[in-house]
């Protein structure tokens, strides 16, 4: 059997499993990790009534959190602990209570310890609700025991 470091997909999956086990925030919000590949991740989240803002729409903070979680899983697929250096979001349309949101993160560029990732958050029908861009910075720390 290949060690995860010898197989990029196995490494991405092992890193995601290790992160998911300790990601109480994403799990508490009902997120699900749908898929992960090197530099990419897909997460979903159902918008519950307690996620509505004063206008009855999905609070933008929840949309941002879903995008940020997908970003985190995408940039942590290479074995090193990687954190956000900066990020921004543009809201295109509101989400509604009852929507199932999907955040699809993809790597745009990675050089040295820095990375750039785009995340689209969309409804079940594919309608985009938000575009998120995150810059990452990897640390000198392994995600998996034994590196």
From TrEMBL:
The keyword Oxidoreductase does not apply. Transmembrane segments: none annotated. InterPro entries: Acyl-CoA_thioesterase_PaaI (IPR052723), HotDog_dom_sf (IPR029069), PaaD (IPR011973), PAAI_dom (IPR003736), Thioestr_dom (IPR006683). It comes from the Bacteria. Pfam families: 4HBT (PF03061). This is Phenylacetic acid degradation protein. Belongs to the thioesterase PaaI family. GO terms for molecular function: acyl-CoA hydrolase activity. Keywords: Hydrolase. Signal peptide: none annotated. Residues 55-127 form the Thioesterase domain. It comes from Roseivivax isoporae LMG 25204.
